[in-house]
Write a structure and sequence with these properties.
The chain is of the alpha+beta class. The protein has helices at 56-61, 91-94, 99-115, 123-136, 145-159, 217-233, 243-256, and strands at 6-8, 11-13, 16-29, 33-40, 44-50, 67-73, 82-89, 165-169, 178-181, 187-190, 202-203. The chain has 2 domains: 1-94, Beta Barrel (OB fold (Dihydrolipoamide Acetyltransferase, E2P)); 96-261, de novo design (two linked rop proteins), CATH 1.20.1440.120.
Length: 261
């Protein structure tokens, strides 16, 4: 928690902090400023005002997906406050020639911005997101990084309070021959155990333990996590799944939707 302003002698000590951060979103505010949302390890998702955000230099810094060094200061801890931001790693600039990876970064930032409570520490999720950004920068012509991205979405679901059980059959308790996921409970179901409900089940990708996935793993994985993000997370806020996430799913479906892995 950021402390309230403290009076020391005749001066007032303002609440402030300095942390490494991930830029999540940037919204214009007035002529030259912007409302910026960041993810930090100990301050969590935190918003603040950045003055001079419309300058050429700051436009390059304030790109969702960039890693920055941010300092926040306000007169009172409950106020919006102001950020001073310096660039650490220009992640988006490094991936400008890969639209699919850029779409993944945009989707991840939008999901974090739309699902996390404000000002709650997120050290594990921040570390996991940093690992995802590192993964996205590895040379990978087969786009196997999408497996890591889907696992990251499973971690996000767990962080916001909805964990999927993909290791045990909801009907028999067995750990083998898993093929489906219940769209209601998020629990795996073994091959041949779904009965008349088999047509309503979500496919379990092979890289998550599935044995009979009837669509490409990447397409199935995004459909799986997207279902629960939409129904269990964003529906609770009465909003739709972010368009950035839908765009990523559409791009993956366009590339892999007609094939199996």
């Amino acid at each position: 928690m950021t402390p309230p302003a403290i009076r020391s002698g005749t001066s007032i000590i303002m609440p402030e902090w300095v942390e490494e951060a991930l830029v999540l979103s940037v919204r214009p505010y007035g002529e030259n400023s912007a409302l910026v949302s960041l993810l930090t390890p100990t301050q969590g998702r935190h918003a603040g005002l950045v003055r001079g955000a419309s300058s050429a230099r700051m436009r390059g810094v304030l790109q969702p997906g960039n890693l920055v060094r941010a300092s926040w200061r306000a007169r009172l801890s409950e106020q919006l406050g102001q950020f001073s931001i310096e660039l650490d790693e220009p992640v988006t600039a490094l991936l400008l020639d890969d639209p699919l990876r850029l779409a993944a970064i945009a989707a991840a930032c939008a999901l974090l911005d739309g699902s996390l409570p404000e000002r709650e520490a997120q050290p594990v999720l921040f570390e996991a997101t940093g690992a995802l950004l590192q993964l996205l920068r590895i040379e990978d012509p087969d786009n196997r990084w999408l497996e890591g991205y889907i696992r990251w979405e499973l971690g996000l679901l767990q962080s916001v309070g909805f964990s999927l059980d993909l290791e045990h059959c909801a009907v028999t308790g067995q750990t083998g021959r898993l093929a489906h996921v219940s769209p209601k409970s998020g629990r795996a179901v073994a091959e041949g155990e779904a009965g008349e409900f088999a047509g309503r089940m979500l496919a379990l990708p092979r890289f998550l333990g599935g044995v009979a996935c009837n669509r490409h793993d990447f397409d199935a994985g995004l459909a799986l996590t997207g279902h629960f993000l939409e129904r269990r997370v964003f529906a609770s806020y009465h909003v739709d799944l972010p368009p950035q996430r839908r765009r990523l799913a559409d791009m993956v479906a366009g590339l892999y939707g007609g094939s199996t892995l």
